[in-house]
Amino acid sequence: MWDAKETAGLHAEPQPPALGPRRFVAVAALFYGTLLAAAIGWRAWADGVGPWRSGGPPLAEMGLFARLAVGLAFGALLIALSRVWTARSAAGRALAAELGAVVAGISTWQAVLLALLSGIGEEAFFRGALQPEVGWLWASLLFGLAHFHPRRELRVWSLAAALAGLGFGALFDATGDLVAPAAAHALVNAVNLRWLARRGTARP
User: 10 Å Cβ neighbour count for 150?
Assistant: First the structure.
């Protein structure tokens, strides 16, 4: 996610206003659980390796907390960039308005839970399973395509997701596993989802 919770396109999450926040979280948990299971099955069938490993540098070269810190720092950078983009561009403001209306009513704990589910499920699939097969660039482009929405206000979301995916994929290759990209992805989603929910609720 670039300036929003990832919520549409080919991997779209269900829309919370239609389902209600609690049911939305339950359906999202089922969706991301299925995505994670697909990633695990794919990598097990392809090479017998879990989707959390990239085959990159040995993990001993960078400790767990270092990988986590790198991921959180990158996530914080994406959040800052998304705020600047929203404040200074009409496209960013339109996207924030549209997605804010979609996620209005989501609570803080629901935002955090959805962020963890999406951060782990999507990263396991797009980085852990897909990237070793098709490469960094194609995995990122497909990640962007998965966020495509035909509505004019949401089309830019696909480009933003692809750019974020390039960063997540680079973290995966550089650090050797999903800790850094999943941490970055989850942080962006948690902070931006809650921010968008408040914007949506405040709309007249």
Answer: 8
Per-residue pLDDT of the chain (204 residues; tens, 9 = 90+): 444 444 433 344 434 445 667 787 788 889 888 999 999 888 888 777 776 777 666 655 778 899 999 999 999 999 999 999 999 999 888 888 888 887 778 888 989 999 999 999 999 999 999 998 899 999 999 999 998 878 777 788 899 999 999 999 999 998 889 999 999 999 999 999 999 888 765 554
Coil, strand or helix: which one is 177? strand
Give the pTM: 0.83
Domain ranges of the chain: 15-49+65-202
3-state helix, strand, coil in the chain (%, to 5): 80, 0, 20
